[in-house]
């Protein structure tokens, strides 16, 4: 004997009506399985090196300042030697005019 849906009158071929989708009378639906709980994401790795990064930056800045200090001292010594050489009358350091090629006779007009 064919069964018909009590809601829409269509012929039933399973536990649910193929036309309206409602359950057939007296039919027991298969138990609905619960979806699996979502897997939790792994925790992010701990932030390590916060103090180490800060220390590295401080050391780098101090190193740069040290290099600039040494360069400034070297430049000051170089300038002081030039001044001392001019005061002593050194011919190489006291000539303020540039040395001209050919004794300045290269081009006569």
What does it look like?
The structure is a single chain. Helix content is 39%, strand content 0%. The protein has 109 residues and is mostly helical. It is rod-shaped, with a radius of gyration of 48 Å. The mean pLDDT is 79.
Question: What secondary-structure arrangement, pairings included, does this model have?
Answer:
Blueprint: H1 50-88, H2 91-94
Give a short synopsis of this structure.
With 109 residues, the protein is mainly α. Helix content is 39%, strand content 0%. 1% of the residues are buried.
Oligomer: single chain
Number of helices: 2
Poorly predicted regions are: none
Shape assignment: rod-shaped
Mean pLDDT: 79
Return Rg in Å: 48 Å
Strand content: under 5%
Specify the helix fraction band: 25-40%
Sheet with most strands:
none
Q: Could you state the order of secondary-structure elements as H and E?
A: HH
Total beta strands: 0
- Computed structural class: mainly alpha
Instruction: Give the CA-CA distance, first to last residue.
Output: 133 Å
């Amino acid at each position: 004997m064919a069964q018909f849906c009590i809601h829409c009158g269509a012929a039933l071929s399973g536990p649910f009506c193929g036309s309206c989708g409602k359950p057939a009378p007296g039919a027991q639906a298969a138990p609905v399985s619960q979806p699996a709980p979502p897997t939790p994401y792994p925790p992010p790795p701990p932030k390590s090196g916060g103090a180490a990064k800060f220390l590295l930056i401080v050391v780098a800045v101090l190193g740069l300042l040290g290099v600039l200090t040494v360069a400034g001292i070297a430049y000051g010594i170089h300038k002081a030697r030039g001044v001392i050489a001019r005061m002593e009358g050194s011919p190489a350091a006291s000539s303020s005019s540039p040395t001209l090629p050919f004794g300045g006779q290269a081009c006569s007009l």
